[in-house]
Specification:
The complex is a heterotetramer, with one copy of chain A (about 775 residues), two copies of chain B (about 80 residues) and one copy of chain C (about 230 residues).
Chain A lengths: L10 H6 L14 H11 L5 H10 L2 H4 L4 H9 L7 E3 L6 E4 L4 E9 L1 H6 L1 H18 L3 E11 L5 H21 L3 E8 L8 E11 L14 E6 L15 H4 L15 H16 L5 E4 L4 H13 L2 E5 L12 H6 L5 E6 L4 H10 L4 E8 L10 E5 L2 E6 L1 H5 L15 H6 L11 H13 L7 H4 L10 E3 L6 E4 L7 E7 L2 H6 L1 H18 L3 E10 L6 H21 L3 E7 L3 E2 L2 E2 L3 E10 L16 E5 L10 H7 L11 H16 L5 E4 L4 H13 L1 E5 L10 H7 L6 E5 L4 H10 L4 E10 L2 E4 L3 E4 H9 L1 H6 L12
Parallel strand pairs in A: 4-5, 9-12, 17-18, 24-27
Antiparallel strand pairs in A: 1-2, 2-3, 3-6, 4-6, 7-10, 7-11, 8-10, 9-11, 12-13, 14-15, 15-16, 16-21, 17-21, 19-20, 22-25, 22-26, 23-25, 24-26, 27-28
Helix pairs in contact in A: 5-20, 7-8, 7-10, 8-10, 10-13, 16-26, 19-20, 19-22
Chain B lengths: L1 E9 L6 H9 L8 E14 L5 H12 L5 E7 L2
Antiparallel strand pairs in B: 1-2, 1-3
Chain C lengths: L1 E6 L6 H10 L3 E6 L10 E4 L19 H11 L4 E4 L1 H8 L6 E3 L7 E9 L15 E8 L3 E3 L2 H9 L3 E5 L11 E5 L5 E4 L18 H10 L14
Parallel strand pairs in C: 1-2, 1-3, 3-4, 4-11
Antiparallel strand pairs in C: 5-8, 6-7, 6-9, 9-10, 10-11
The chains are: A alpha+beta (about 775), B alpha+beta (about 80), C alpha/beta (about 230).
The complex binds adenosine-5'-diphosphate and magnesium ion.
């Protein structure tokens, strides 16, 4: 081939034209970063190499701003023999018995979901499912923590229905039950909704897969969808226009998902794992082939020779740098011994999935510690790099941190001083307003769009406190997961806010009777270049790491999403924390709803006057200020242990954690769940003036509402007292269809409660078509 | 009564799983010479009075198509 | 007794249907879409899911699977066939049942526990119920709205071919609240709600769904379907 | 390469909730003179060789449309 015909940049050309100007700044690289690349290569990078470095060294892939902080999750890690794979892998893997492990992780897909809500959310689900699949696991459930702008803002009517349909469209079609999530509204998310997605998978302990591209001579196989131009620039600011000024077509950064293809990909991968046919596997997500090729070879210390033109393309006109940067969905990279190649291709064919050998693993040159990744395009070398330089040698920043200027004033402006209702009528009216408010109202309009039954192992799902799935049909072994985050608390105190999210997720898992064992997290923040945001981030990570150490459960994985802001305004810091717990026998699960008239109702934990950052302050006074509720992790631990033992001994009929909206909200939810009323008498010391209000709406942590069947009360209270866990008898469960009554204060029929609680979302989003374009107000 | 037809198709570079699935099923109908199938939406808008093509274009742009991933054409049907 | 459960690419509730068959006391036999052989099963379930992604029209592509040719032939000979959700859609597309299933009127996928009244207890799949009995079974579909011409609907009513109706809120806008229908002979039934998800109180809202699977075990004559080379010794 | 376009629309007597939803949203765009909106599918089939209109008709009839509820038209695109 003569060089005249070549319309793409090659290594040879790069050597010949060292001074050619390159658009590194447009690709998001700093001048010193570009200089580093030239140093590493000993020449200017080719167009393809430049694209690869710019993606791999982007914030999203390199964690350059967060790395120095995230280290604490390792440094402060509590000892746990359960963790088989932790941070650094696609997802954390936790042994739940001698031979069964689970893997779980949460990730964000925030920006794409704002641009194209349906596809953005759908591909968010698809991406996290492939991470779980890459560990060797069968994905068995998904969850979706979501944050939107104000519920009544016209653009929320564009974003929310699309996001929900996308989460459902992809998850339902994959056959994964959706077992929980969050729907939270706050104006801070107006131009920047948060779409986080969690997947959990199950694998035999001995089937854990590795991503290492070990064994020189082994074949590199790309399996799944064809590669197209979609998503180029999704990860970094890479846009093909900057390469190709002539045909300036803006490429979309949103990909379209194909859940059917993903389902076939899952089934074929699981067959490959079961037959032990592969050496390594890696999913393709952000940064596509670039990330998969470099990570698999770098982690093994090997090299690769890849013939890029063998990659099946959807659009034949793609150039090599586009193929390398494409974020086309539903693809996996496999490392296969040559003798197994035919068997692998055969399984792919059985499921109707494309599988194509694209290269071979190579050994390091004699004297070298690591191999090189060389990529050719129709015979010409377009990439020749040490793969480790892309994966591990990216820039690391200790960005400046500074407490936000407004924080002292904000913290001084306490909600405890706001006007409060002081009589029964006022409380009754307040209760009805509170349960109808967007954050506290019934979320069925959203969750009914998700399949919760598929796979037949869903024991608890939304609106229960945690999702609980059966893992082993014979023994009843299962896992419970809850995801939580309260950004208002985190805004007021990010250290405490992260711990409160952890505490809430821990509590939600514990009330089902499960034993919390591991943590994942998705840290959604504004721009790391803003010292105030960076301070929030640092505090949140420190809080979470300290909290996990104190609770004795390790962080096994997670995700960071920066740049969540509109103009200069960052979202509230939003650490979303997921806790996974193990249930030895899901038949002993504890649901949240009252279910027998005459059962005793107890409140566990202590109530304090804690209204700052509360849902009440926000709904009634549009107020955010003060300091969030006190964190009491030892108390959470005692509560969890007590609930676990009570569940094992069959002493409790229901348990429901208290969080947003306090005791009042918990009483309403437990009543409406199965349609049983409740008669409550407030403790004498809380019965006068505005104290009943405080008791009902304070958001003190470490509390749960529990019902105990007649005859077990003594045993139950003794169990709590042994653990120094405050226990207060509040009253009894009333008859089916009765009312919620607070003696001396008010009484509301369940019908009236239900009408207020369920009406809000259908009223806001019931009409099904909204415009496609962003709506300003 | 006058009718405007809006055809909405995914942009050529965007994956079309629907079309792909149909193309994959054709061999079973004994069809082997189809290179590609793309599936989009056809929207028929009947105006009660005069056709308002500008209005139709606005409807297409704001409601019927998502310009991030879809192209559309608007025409009056004869 | 063997109940076959077909897996198409994109079938999702196949494992659940097999589990329900086992709970009812049958042996569950997995059938593969590309294999025309029914392996001696006494009845067949077409399970829920999104066969071939349900991209064109639900069930439109699955209808052409090799296994469907055999099922269509045997169904005309009396083989009991139950199509659940996507399976119901496939049966309509394959013209083994009349009418069609279209997009839910409210345009959303909907998953909820649904009250359903069994209208006809004479089919191969509903013999264990009594006509008029109300049961609770989950619905979960995006295109479960049954439509047909007025003549067809009248005919279905007149022939007792409406097997079940929604009670309370109609979850998808289905005409005449139709949740399940049968063919004229009564061996082929299509149902939109998912009986296989109501077989265990641990994981479902009731155990009402089990009745469909126990019914068919009583309706079939063992061995009737085995082909010569598979006659058990 | 030659293209056949198949338009598939719900029969007039079949309710089209999607079309209705779009029609219902029009007043919000200030459009009040639309009598009805119907939404169907537009399928573009590219043949690798000659257009085979009979084949296309067969594909439409057996696969692309459900004759119980849908009508279709098949035409070669110019
Ligand atoms: N907030 C976090 N906490 C703990 N681990 C994290 C966090 N963010 C990222 N990680 C870990 O860093 C690694 C790389 O993350 P990511 O790039 O999201 O993974 P992937 O490439 O699989 O999408 C993963 O092991 C992930 O678990
Ligand atoms: Mg990964």
């Amino acid at each position: 081939m003569t060089s005249v015909e070549i319309d793409f940049d090659t290594v040879e050309q790069a050597r010949r034209t060292p001074d050619e100007e390159q658009p590194f700044a447009e690709l998001g690289l700093q001048p010193d970063e570009y200089e580093r690349i030239r140093q590493i290569l000993g020449r200017r990078p080719t167009q393809s190499e430049l694209a690869m470095y710019s993606i791999m060294w982007s914030e999203h892939c390199s964690y350059k701003s967060s790395k120095i902080h995230l280290r604490q999750f390792g440094e402060k890690k509590p000892v746990s023999e359960r963790v088989l794979a932790g941070i650094g892998e696609n997802a954390g893997v936790i042994a739940i018995s001698d031979d069964i492990a689970v893997t779980f992780k949460v990730e964000s897909h925030n920006h794409p979901s704002y641009v194209e809500p349906y596809q953005g959310a759908a591909t968010g689900v698809g991406g996290i499912v492939r991470d779980i699949l890459a560990m060797g696991a069968r994905p068995v459930a998904v969850m979706d923590p979501l944050r939107f702008g104000a519920a009544d803002h016209p653009d929320t009517a564009r974003v929310l229905p699309g996001v929900v349909a996308g989460v459902g469209g992809y998850g339902n079609c994959l056959g994964l039950p959706n077992i929980g999530g969050e729907v939270v509204f706050d104006p801070c998310y107006q131009g920047n909704p948060l779409v986080n997605a969690l997947c959990v998978g199950v694998l035999p302990v001995d089937r854990l897969q590795r991503k290492e591209a070990d064994g020189p001579g082994n074949i590199v196989v790309l399996m799944g969808a064809k590669t197209g131009r979609d998503g180029i620039g999704g990860v970094s600011v890479l846009a093909s226009a900057t390469f190709d000024e002539g045909s300036e077509q803006r490429r979309p950064s949103v990909q379209v998902g194909d859940p059917f293809m993903e389902k076939l990909l899952i089934e074929s991968c699981l067959e490959l794992y079961a037959a032990d046919l592969i050496v390594g596997v890696q999913d393709l997500g952000g940064a596509g082939l670039t990330c998969a090729l470099t990570e698999t070879s770098a982690s093994a210390g090997t090299g690769m020779k890849v013939q890029l033109e063998t990659v099946p393309l959807r659009e034949p006109s793609m150039s090599p740098h586009e193929v390398l940067a494409s974020e086309s969905q539903e693809r996996m990279l496999l490392i296969v011994e040559p003798s197994r190649l035919n068997a692998v291709l055969g399984i792919a064919q059985l499921w109707g999935v494309l599988a194509t050998p694209i290269g071979v693993v190579t050994a390091p040159e004699p004297g070298e510690k690591a191999g090189r990744l060389t990529i050719t395009w129709h015979g010409e070398t377009v990439v020749d790099v040490p793969p480790g330089s892309l994966v591990d040698d990216g820039p690391v920043y200790a960005r400046p941190l500074k407490e936000p200027n407004d924080l002292p004033l904000l913290q001084a402006d306490r909600a405890e001083t706001l006007p409060k209702p002081a009589d029964g009528d006022g409380l009754r009216a307040l209760l009805l307003r509170m349960i109808a408010s967007p954050n506290l109202c019934d979320k069925s309009w959203v969750t009914e769009q998700y399949d919760r039954y598929v796979l037949g192992n869903t024991v608890l799902a939304q609106p229960e406190d945690a999702g609980l799935i059966r893992i082993d049909e014979n023994s009843g072994l299962g896992v419970a997961i809850s995801l939580d985050g309260n950004a208002r608390y985190a805004r007021l105190d990010p250290y405490a806010g992260a711990q409160l999210a952890l505490a809430e997720a821990y509590r939600n898992v514990a009330v089902t009777g499960a034993n919390p064992v591991a943590v994942t997290n998705c840290l959604n923040f504004g721009s790391p270049e803003d010292p105030a945001v960076m301070w929030q981030f640092a505090e949140a990570v420190r809080g979470l790491a300290d909290g996990c150490l104190e609770l004795g459960i390790p962080v096994t994985g997670g995700n960071v999403s920066f740049y969540n802001q509109t103009g200069a305004a960052a979202i509230h810091p939003t650490p979303v924390v997921g806790v996974l717990g193990v249930h030895d026998d899901v038949a002993q699960r504890v649901p949240m709803g009252f279910s027998y008239a005459g059962d005793a109702v107890f409140l566990l934990g202590s109530t304090r006057t804690e209204l700052s950052g509360s849902e009440w302050a926000w709904v009634e006074h549009n107020h955010l200020g003060g300091t969030p509720p006190q964190v009491d992790l030892p108390g959470e631990r005692r509560l969890g242990e007590a609930l676990g033992e009570a569940a094992d001994r069959g002493l409790v009929r229901s348990a429901h954690d208290l969080s947003d909206g306090g005791l009042a909200q918990a009483l309403v939810e437990s009543s409406l769940r199965r349609g049983f009323g409740v008669d409550v008498e407030l403790p004498a010391e809380w019965s006068t003036g505005t104290l009943p209000f405080v008791y009902l709406f304070s958001e003190s942590t470490g509390r749960a509402l529990v019902t105990v069947p007649p005859g077990h009360e003594m045993a139950f209270t003794a169990l709590c007292e042994e653990r120094q866990l405050p226990v207060t008898k509040l009253g009894t469960v009333a008859a089916e269809g009765a009312a919620l009554s607070v003696q001396g204060q008010f009484s509301v029929s369940l019908d009236e409660l239900r009408e207020a609680w369920t009406g809000t979302l259908p009223r806001l989003f019931g009409s099904t078509i909204s415009t496609n374009v962003v709506q300003e107000d | 009564m006058a009718r405007v037809v809006v055809d909405v198709m995914l942009k050529p570079e965007i994956l079309d799983p629907q079309g792909q699935a149909v193309a994959g099923a054709l061999p079973r109908l004994g069809v082997s010479d189809v290179a590609s199938v793309r599936i989009g939406r056809r929207v028929e808008i009947d105006f009660s009075g005069e056709v308002d093509l500008d209005k139709a274009r606005e409807i297409a742009d704001k409601l019927l198509a998502n310009p991030v991933i879809e192209d559309y054409t608007v025409r009056v049907e004869q | 007794m063997k109940i076959g459960v077909v897996t198409f690419p994109g079938s999702l509730d196949d494992g659940d249907a097999a589990r329900a068959a086992r709970y009812a006391g049958a042996e569950a036999v997995r059938l593969w879409h590309a294999d025309p052989e029914l392996h001696g099963v006494d009845a067949v379930v077409l399970p829920g899911g999104f066969s071939y992604g349900d991209y064109l029209r639900c069930g439109a592509i699955a209808r052409f699977a090799p296994v469907m040719e055999t099922i269509a032939r045997e169904a005309r000979d009396g083989l009991p066939v139950l199509g659940i959700c996507n399976g119901f859609q496939i049966l309509c597309e394959a013209h083994l049942l009349p009418g069609a299933l279209t997009r839910n009127q409210h345009l959303h996928f909907r998953n909820r526990d649904q009250r359903v009244r069994i209208e006809n207890a004479t089919t191969a799949w509903t013999g264990d119920f009594s006509a008029g009995q109300e049961v609770v079974i989950p619905v979960k579909n995006g295109e479960g709205c049954f439509v047909g011409s007025t003549e067809l609907l009248d005919e279905l009513e007149a022939n007792g071919q409406i097997v079940a109706r929604y009670v309370g809120e109609n979850p998808n806008g289905s005409m005449r609240d139709i949740a399940a229908i049968r063919n004229e002979a009564g061996n082929v039934v299509g149902i939109m709600p998912h009986p296989e998800h109501a077989v265990d109180l641990l994981t479902g809202p009731s155990v009402d769904g089990l009745g469909f699977f126990t019914s068919v075990l009583k309706a079939i004559t063992p061995g009737r379907r085995t082909t010569t080379e598979e006659v058990p010794a």
